[in-house]
From TrEMBL:
Region (Disordered) location: 33-53
Lineage top rank: taxon: Bacteria
Family membership noted in the UniProt record: Belongs to the four-carbon acid sugar kinase family.
InterPro entries (alphabetical): 4-carb_acid_sugar_kinase_N, 4-carb_acid_sugar_kinase_N_sf, NBD_C, NBD_C_sf, OtnK
Catalysis performed (reactions): 3-dehydro-L-erythronate + ATP = 3-dehydro-4-O-phospho-L-erythronate + ADP + H(+); 3-dehydro-D-erythronate + ATP = 3-dehydro-4-O-phospho-D-erythronate + ADP + H(+)
This enzyme's EC code(s): 2.7.1.217
Entry protein name: 3-oxo-tetronate kinase
Gene Ontology MF terms: ATP binding; kinase activity
One Pfam family recorded for the sequence: NBD_C
Enzyme class: transferase
Function according to Swiss-Prot or TrEMBL: Catalyzes the ATP-dependent phosphorylation of 3-oxo-tetronate to 3-oxo-tetronate 4-phosphate.
Length: 450
């Protein structure tokens, strides 16, 4: 029976969560959405998305299912519709407990999408109390007195302050959440959490009021705090948080939870993220890997030629050295991030980059790439859609929140892929992550992701 049904607001967030679930011994599959809730969003052509007949076949040995949406910065009504469709799908496979995953830096605006999605799911599931826990101590995200820290910095003093889509100009989670939710926002601070699971459970139960709905922001600065929170919230049907909250689950004894099939072959790295950590990773890799940088202006005027030139360049690299790992990326600094004028009819620069990376990925896989790292949530979603991937079986961890997985492309080819959130992963990830694939026990061949 599937123990947990999880809804994530982007592709890399889904794999972040999945790797933490697998780390606790839960056999986990990621399904790439969105479900076909109203006919406006459909799986890639030729692929079976989560809402298609038969898409849930073969989940008999799975402990957790994560549905990856692309809803973090989507219009609020679309994010809500997709999340509700995902919940109905998870209910159909027997899920009784639900996990709403958002970014550990609480990426949102006063309009949403965190608050509206959580409100809608609480109403749908008939729950009146939930928890809000973006803390992920292993990745440097902690909450104290309701304030979110990124490393040693308050959220509004971190690089997230200038995020191009969701600039975070406050660190107080209650203040950030209140404008975007119709629920009452409560706060449970560290002394209550540190008093133990029973004290926390009592504090949560005391928040229930007839006809009311409460979202409680909880302090957490260590993984032990997350364990207390997950134990103390066992009576709740729905929990919400960053991917780190899954590290608080009681571990299952399952030595093979991380086993995946590994297919040797050509390698490549594709980066659409402009986050600070990804830029650091690109700077490190540029000194060690052959690279090409995408230019949005060139893509706008000669898209097909620019993509073809990069694929041809990579093929020439592999022809002379099969061990070569080409790096294709979009930003060295924030100066490379193009803020297009609002209201223009043409594709934005970010959309062009996303589409180019997806097209390059198809060209690389056609050339024989079997192991691929993709950095950035939007880029990861585009790559998977372009390749027709609808399921990912989660495997060995690269670092906190980053994992290798095994998937089948639309054409039936086995692909090992690591999908990285922009701010995650070690600086040397693009040159060292491949080692983890050599340590898994899987053998070459087809994988059913079940």
């Amino acid at each position: 029976m599937v123990q947990w049904g999880c809804i994530a607001d982007d592709v890399t967030g889904a794999t972040d969560l999945a790797t933490n679930l697998v780390g606790q011994g839960l056999r986990t599959v990621v399904l790439f959405g969105p479900p076909e809730e109203d006919g406006t969003e459909r799986p890639p052509a030729g692929a079976r998305g989560p809402g298609a007949p038969g898409a849930l076949d073969g989940l008999g040995d799975v402990d957790a299912v994560v549905i990856a949406l692309k809803s973090r910065t989507a219009p609020v009504d679309r994010a809500v519709r997709q999340s509700l469709a995902a919940a109905r799908l998870l209910e159909a496979v027997g899920c009784d407990r639900f996990y709403v995953k958002y970014c550990s830096t609480f990426d949102s605006t006063p309009a949403g999408n965190i608050g509206p999605v959580v409100d809608a799911l609480m109403e749908h599931l008939g729950e009146t109390v939930t928890i809000v826990v973006p803390s992920f101590p292993d990745a440097g995200r902690t909450v104290y007195l309701g304030h979110l820290f990124v490393g040693d910095d308050l959220l509004d003093e971190s690089p997230m302050r200038d995020h191009p889509l969701t600039p975070m100009r406050d660190s107080s989670l209650p203040r950030l959440l209140a404008p975007q939710t119709s629920s009452e926002v409560a706060q449970i601070t560290l002394p209550t959490v540190r008093s133990g699971p029973q004290a926390l459970a009592s504090a949560l139960e005391s928040l229930r009021t007839p006809g009311g709905r409460v979202a409680a922001v909880l302090d957490a600065i260590t993984t032990d705090d997350l364990r207390t929170i997950m134990e103390g919230s066992r009576a709740l049907r729905i929990v919400t948080g960053g991917s780190g909250l899954a590290q608080g689950l009681a571990p299952l004894e399952n030595a093979r939870a991380r086993d995946i099939t590994v297919r040797p072959g050509l390698r490549a790295v594709l980066c659409g993220s402009a986050s600070q950590r990804t830029r650091e990773q690109v700077a490190h890799a540029r000194d060690r890997l052959p690279w090409r940088k995408l230019d949005p202006q060139v893509l706008r005027t000669a898209f097909d030629r620019a993509v073809a030139d990069i694929v041809r360049w990579a093929r020439e690299l592999w022809a002379s050295d099969e061990s070569a790992t080409p790096l294709v990326y979009s930003a060295d600094s924030l100066a490379d991030v193009v803020h297009d004028a609002p209201g223009r009819d043409a594709e934005s620069s970010a959309e062009l980059v996303e589409r180019a990376i997806a097209a390059i990925a198809r060209g690389f896989v056609d050339a024989g790439v079997t192991q691929l790292i993709v950095a950035g949530g939007e880029s990861s979603g585009g790559v998977l859609a372009g390749l027709g991937v609808t399921r990912l079986r989660v495997g060995p961890e690269i670092s906190a929140g980053v994992t290798w997985g095994a998937a089948l492309t639309r054409g039936g080819a086995l692909l090992n892929v690591a999908l990285k959130s922009g701010n995650f992963g070690p600086v040397d990830m693009f040159t060292t992550a491949w080692r983890e694939l050599g340590r898994t026990s899987g053998q070459e061949g087809k994988v059913s992701a079940k």
